[in-house]
Amino acid sequence: MEAALATVYGSTAIAVGIILAAAGLGSALGWGLICSKFLEGIARQPEMRPQLMGQMLFTGGLMEAFPMIVLGMSMWFIFANPFAAQVMDAIKVAGG
Predict the structure, then answer these.
(1) Share of the chain above pLDDT 70, in %
(2) Distance CA 73, CA 82 (A)
(3) Residues 6+ apart with CB under 8 A from 87
(4) Does residue 1 register a pLDDT over 80?
(5) What are the residue boundaries of the structural domains of the chain, listed by start?
(6) Answer CATH for 2-79 from 3.90.1150.10, 2.40.420.20, 1.20.20.10, 3.90.180.10
């Protein structure tokens, strides 16, 4: 019983680590693309800098929201693990 729960919690922790790493990497790549396109736009039309700055910051804010949403979902998996409840129910059914 304890081994099954330990396996579920361990697997969940590994999956959450991979998910958070992917979200961080995706956000970093997104910021890099946003900033590079911002600089390209300024190089083409320097007079558009204020408008491009606003668009860059707005899009960057959306980009930063993604890892925070993923962090919230990951914390749900860590602290209120739905898989552990399923394992406990299966153990109760199998045990009697």
Answers:
(1) 99
(2) 12
(3) 4, 5, 8
(4) no
(5) 2-79
(6) 1.20.20.10
Whether residue 47 has pLDDT greater than 80? yes
Q: Can you tell me which residue has the tokens 């199998």?
A: 94
The DSSP string of 40-73 is HHHHH-GGGHHHHHHHHHHHHHHHHHHHHHHHHH
Q: How far apart are CA 4 and CA 10, in angstroms?
A: 10
Q: Is the pTM of this model over 0.85?
A: no
**Greatest CA separation found in the chain?**
75
